[in-house]
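Target chain:
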Amino acid sequence: QLLLVESGGGLVQPGGSLRLSCAASGDTLDYYGIGWFRQAPGKEREAVSCISSSGGSTNYADSVKGRFTISRDNAKNTVYLQMNSLKPEDTAVYYCKAYAAGRGYWGQGTQVTVSS
């Protein structure tokens, strides 16, 4: 059973940066695509970014293009989301999801708050 744990969230001022981590245990992430999602209060969960199992393909929501970067280190069984130029509207709980062959596993989420 794959277990995902997000970390790196916190309170940051507008324009600041955070790096989120999604660490896996119980299985290797080598064969999983990984997505980052976020959910703000009163809103539906939305996709932020995803990366293929090899890391060769990435995608971003229009709202974060040019500011966020997804990457993975399969040797560390970890996926990252570097978030720069953060805006108040980026405030949300951020979740990672691993998916492969019809299976999906979610982490518990990490809170990101962008406020002055």
Summary: The two ends are 40 Å apart (CA to CA).
